[in-house]
Amino acid sequence: MKIGELSEKTGVATRLLRYYEEVGILHPFRSGNGYRTYGEPAIDRVLQIRELLEAGLTTEMIREVLPCLDAAKEGTEAESCPVDDKDLDGLRRQLISIERRIDVLQRNQRSIKSYIHAWEKAGVASPSATAGPQEADVRR
Prior knowledge:
By secondary structure, the chain is mainly α. It is 69% helix and 3% strand. The longest helix is centred in the last third of the chain and has 38 residues, at 85-122. 12% of the residues are buried.
């Protein structure tokens, strides 16, 4: 598939896909005419890159950790996992940050579920259920 199709399938702008290639975290094939082409695995790779970026990793960290993640998927040992103490320390800090965010999200999830359950148990109609269509839209 060409870059535009990959962009459509992942929701990531072509400009970002080119940047991912530039920093070495996405590797397209080049066709005879020089166009970038991508296999189906590129979709998962781009989505994985987006998730790692959203988790707070930098593109430099992602470049270092991708071989390890690929090896873990395949159940093999990666030849080029980060061994630099600085890289490992950065990844450890990111892991701690991710774990904290997970804890916060889980607490919020439990609170919201509890709130919804309390409303349902009390038999109270939700505000949007009692409002007319226009009023419900205004509240959103």
